[in-house]
Amino acid sequence: MMMATTSPARPSRRMRAARVVLVVGGALGLALGVYVLVDTVALRRLPGVALWIGGAIVLHDAVISPMVFGLGVLTRRAGHRLAGGIIVTVQAAIVLGSLMTLLVLPAIAAQTLGSNNPTVLPLDYARNLGLFWLALAVASGLISVWLYLRTKRANQRPSRIQS
Amino acid sequence: MRRLMYEARAQLASPVRNPRTATVIGRLLGLAFLLCFGTGLYSHFLQQPLPWMTFPTRPAGLYQVTQGTHIVAGIACFPLLLAKLYVVFPQLFRYPPVTSFADFLERASIALFVGASLVEITIGLLNTYQWYPFPFPFRQVHFALAFVIIGSLLVHIGVKLPLIAAHWRAAPADGPEERHPVDTNAEDTAAVALAVTKVSTDEGLSRTGGITGRVLSYIDGAPDLPARTSRRGFLTTVALAVTAVVGLTAGQTLAPLDAANVFGPRKKGVGPQGVPVNRTSAQAKVATAALSADWVLTLAVGGTERVFSRAELAALPQTDVDLPIACVEGWSQMAAWRGVRLRDLVDAAGGSPDSDLRLISLEQRGGFKQTEMGSEYVRDPLTLVALELNGETLDLEHGFPARMIAPGRPGVLQTKWLSRIEAIDA
User: Fold this and answer.
1) Of A28, A69, A92, which is closest to B236 when you measure between CB atoms?
2) B149 and B69, same structural domain?
3) Phi, psi (degrees; rounded to nearest 5) at B388
4) Closest Cα to residue B133, out of A4, A130, A20, A48?
5) Cα of A159 to nearest chain B Cα, Å
6) How many domains are there within chain B?
7) Model's pTM, two decimal places?
8) Chain A residues in contact with B159 (beta carbon < 8 A)
9) Which residue range forms the structural domain that includes residue B325?
10) Number of CB pairs < 8 Å for A and B?
11) How far is it, in rounded angstroms, from Cα B388 to Cα B62?
12) Residue B79 Cα, gap to closest chain A Cα (Å)
């Protein structure tokens, strides 16, 4: 078992068979999907689908990922005197808030555009999103203070384990 | 270029970017995808059944559960997919970009997989908001991309199977490889990264110059977090994110979470007679016909047609049932319905409860103005032509003068503003 964890196991016959079945089955599924797409969606709509798929990749790889990376660098530099736990807590709060914003912003946009069905999007999403960020700030603040005090106390003991 | 790619991968190396985390997150994401795929297919075939298909009518809340699962798992895919992409991101900067034709095909399928997955969950989310800013039809594209995604998922699992198998269980102890970027099958990236640093510092070779160099040294100045803290922080963040996006929206279908529903597109109890509406009478343009005094429900199920006025329907034996209205958009609402059992009505009109029915609404246009109902629903004693909702005369928005309500069917098939019921094989 130790071998298996340090390097991918040498392909057994069963593994090979499973891989062939998965790749062939997957390729068939993919082909079916493309066929259904071409069969059911008007030809003039297909460039729009391709554009959205390409756009999603670009948006993720060229915008979201660099922002996440930059966030990591900035928080680690800004918090270089603080314990790792505090930095991670702040990072988690920012990630949670950003994710929720990503999901709720379209709801707010759709709400602003208006609908003639008042039972769709009936809540005050902008206010709730603000409260969510506030809750994140309070929670991460409390956790950070607790972690800070705990580290400080540990550092004041004669045998310093933490640095 | 080669060095830039190595630099990028070295900079992006992180304790969480390893095959084990990729396996852990990948398993959860794969599970969420399969849940979405299975429940999505079920919903699709309920709406467009193949000729030989029959469906279970019990439990009565079956569709509420399957479609609720579809939407909950779909929302959970947002944090899981982003986490998975975060873990494998350094792979983007592999060098050389492709090594063979098979490798090219694999990378192309990954790109399609990622792009299609992002589009699939995004348009799914927008559909729950009933907002369509994309230049293609939702239903068809959502359905077709599902096969593209499951297909490329299987290809992906097939390609990575040895790696997945090797990291299915956690390593007994932290191995020395824990800081490697994902997928170490090509070359030992961490060693390469180390070599790059060594070359540039030890042998006095200038690092990448100009702005790039300055950016890199700024990044180098950021202290690394302890690997354990980093890993635990990542997994905790993913767990919290899934909990948050699910917990704060799922109340639109899961009653116990109603109080926490602050971001769901629907709210239980919000709507006429305490029930949300998918399509209003104004959107369907039915108000005049539905409120007309000479409305009748026509049944063409026996040899001859029979018509029932609303008063005649109300004079027939009435049945009370509690059934959820469960929408394809993932919300659901339990409600108390009162009306005529469909099978009794078919019987009164001289028809057989064993024939499939075509239900025709007063709606002038729209995909569901005319739908079909399999005989398993016609026979079921819970299926009603409903006249009352929650103790009041059915609101116009809920299908006045009469609507269908059957167990285990999507809301779009619970035909509102009924006009005509025909036996299909008659």
Assistant:
1) A92
2) yes
3) -130, 150
4) A48
5) 20
6) 2
7) 0.90
8) 19, 23
9) 273-423
10) 253
11) 23
12) 7
